[in-house]
Task: structure prediction
Amino acid sequence: MNEFRRLAVMERVSTAPQLRGLLDEIARAGQPGWGLLLAGLDDEDSQVRAYAAKMLGSLKVSRADVVIALAQMLEDECPQVRQAAAKALTQVTPHPMPVFGALIRAQHDADPVVREYAAEAVDAIAIEPLPGRPVVVY
Result:
């Protein structure tokens, strides 16, 4: 996990080309790379958890276990982690039914950014607007 922490710190200080190279490396690694990012969702450091969620979304990793783990991150105590998880869920599909419920609940989050991304993810998977869906006001 020390390598993952180094990558998370690197992401905060890197230039865009360096970050793209890192994403390409993880994408080429396939399952082992995703496993590293999935493990990062359980890290004690909220910045590492947020980074892992962000990268899983950027890579559009749509495996059911990854999508469910991202949905669980919508309950994280750190707003930045919830934001990253909600945004990642706008970038991946399909969403198993438990994820849909988590996104509906996230539309009532205290953080307006989380509410916005949750609404966006729900809109992406809902065929028709849901009755009673809260309107996100900016």
The helical segments are 2-13, 16-29, 31-40, 46-58, 64-72, 79-91, 97-106, 112-125.
